[in-house]
Write a structure and sequence with these properties.
The chain is of the alpha/beta class. It has a single domain, classed as 3-Layer(aba) Sandwich (Alpha/beta knot), CATH 3.40.1280.10. Helix content is 43%, strand content 22%. It has a five-stranded parallel sheet with strand order 2-1-4-3-5.
Length: 147
Amino acid sequence: MIKIIAVGKMSHKALDEMITYYLKQCPIKMDIVEIDDVSTDQGIQIEGEKILAKIKPADDVIALAIKGTQYSSESFAQLLDHKMTYQSKDIVFVIGGSNGLSNQVIERANQQVSFSKMTFPHQLMRLILVEQIYRALMILKKHPYHK
């Protein structure tokens, strides 16, 4: 199973509809867990604690971070294929809020992935991630969606 832990609530109906579309199309189970956004000086730490509470010790955690490794769609598909084939762990992607992710979440992550050196709104990043997971699965099935 793939789980996405995301800070913040979806407030853009169009983005939410597109995310729902890809979740329905996806051939494997994918869940999204929302963590409340905390807009105080200690917010990133509080969010981090809430994120870590949703992660099981056996989970394979991938933090979305600007400093992470960048992949092409094809190499991202290979990464997911390797994890799904050779590990019996759930894959958990973590998307931080407007202040990013706490050091504790970054340290817990098994790896960091970057979709760009640019910063994206966390709600938009949720759509991008879900679509790229769907695309990766279609690449693995040799489905023409990717072309």
